[in-house]
From TrEMBL:
This is Ig-like domain-containing protein. Residues 4-97, 105-189 form the Ig-like domain. It comes from Mytilus galloprovincialis. One of its GO terms (cellular component) is neuron projection. Keywords: Disulfide bond, Immunoglobulin domain, Repeat, Signal. Pfam families: Ig_3. SUPFAM superfamilies: Immunoglobulin (SSF48726). InterPro entries: Ig-like_dom (IPR007110), Ig-like_dom_sf (IPR036179), Ig-like_fold (IPR013783), Ig_sub (IPR003599), Ig_sub2 (IPR003598), Neural/epithelial_adhesion (IPR051170), Profilin_CS (IPR027310). One of its GO terms (molecular function) is actin binding.
Amino acid sequence: MSWQEITEAIILNEYYVTKEGEEITLECLIKNESSNIKLYWLKDAINVNLYLTNKYSHGTLNQPSLTIKNIETSDAGNYTCKLANLYGLSEDVVVLTVLFVQVAPPLHLSPNANESVFLPCEASGGNRVIWRRNGEEITTTGSLEYSGGTVIKPSLTISNVTRYHAGNYTCDTSYGSVTATSDTQLQLSVKGTEIFRHTINCIKGIFST
């Protein structure tokens, strides 16, 4: 038996990245189809139930690539395209990463000036977390003003909040070119006048009289 006679299942990409709610196709190619008996997919070593037609399509000998619909975080994992033929078994593995991000309530925060405020965010699947205020990215690295906003600690803390921090905040997580953004925004408004700026204004007033 020569190598050319052996049927193989070949994964085109070693990993895929997607986000909740989307649809993705894990591509698998079959070589030398004449000796094929059966093709099936496994997720984390457990057979994928192709009868769940609202969740999966294809993934058969005729259409070996597997399409997953309505992606959820629970769909993340290692997928195996496994082919049985007259000569034995052939398989190849692909990793599916699913991005998830959400900001947690309360969605309206009104701290007093000069207080610290905590903006909660849950994020998974990405290798970067980004906070935005009114659509503009916030730089948290090396900041004395902000802490958190990382993969390990995605929630953001603002120290000594001022009225200039007021606005709409969103939390993103990304992996490569794929980005997931929180569906809802956190609205931050600041009550009172920050002590530092008020003190400066008072000093200016004294020297101007």
